[in-house]
Amino acid sequence: MVDKTDFKDGRIINGSVVEPSRDLMTDNGFGESRRLRVDVGDTDFFAGRKFRDYIPLAVPVAGPSIKFRFSSPINFILWAQDLDLTQGALDLRVYTGSTTSGTWVDRVPIGINRMTDRPQPYYEPQCRLALGGGFTGGTEVDMMLLRASAANNSASNVGDKFSERGLPPGIYYGELKTLTGGVAVSDAAQGKYNLEWAERPPFV
Predict the structure, then answer these.
(1) Domain regions of the chain by residue span
(2) What distance in Å separates the CA atoms of residue 23 and residue 33, rounded to the nearest whole number?
(3) pLDDT given at position 4
(4) Closest-CA residue to 59 (of 177, 185, 160, 203)
(5) pLDDT tens, 65-86?
């Protein structure tokens, strides 16, 4: 048990007390207001492992639909998946285990933290969102429905601070098509599909 007389500003006195490393403290470990440093954000953000991408949408009522592929060779956390519509109505379905066809063209992920003081060498993203190909079959694992009203609408099934999803390596296929039935839909669906994710390579 350490006697209180051994403490002096949290430093080592008589070999009894060790303060945290100064790079873990505010004020560089000195000063009246020094505290343990806590960043507003998460480890993936500051490490440069958090990314986003999007698909601009213009889907005619009669189609064709927009199909996309999201592939990851490692575990990842899906932080946000949402639809923004300015007009029309959309049905989004996501599948695994589908049979692919055609030629897919990868989009370049956009880093959420692109500050120059992130750790070097900079982390290179491994997940990819791709367009241009097609797929059939598979197991449906997610669904979103959205109809625009007089004002712009948005819908999200991930993004709440309690609803992030940890997902395994794999290939995920999605289809965005116009939603019909009920209230008549006469406008092409226009808007944007957004994704935000964090990559979790084995070393983290």
Answers:
(1) 43-199
(2) 15
(3) 44
(4) 177
(5) 999 999 999 999 999 999 888 8
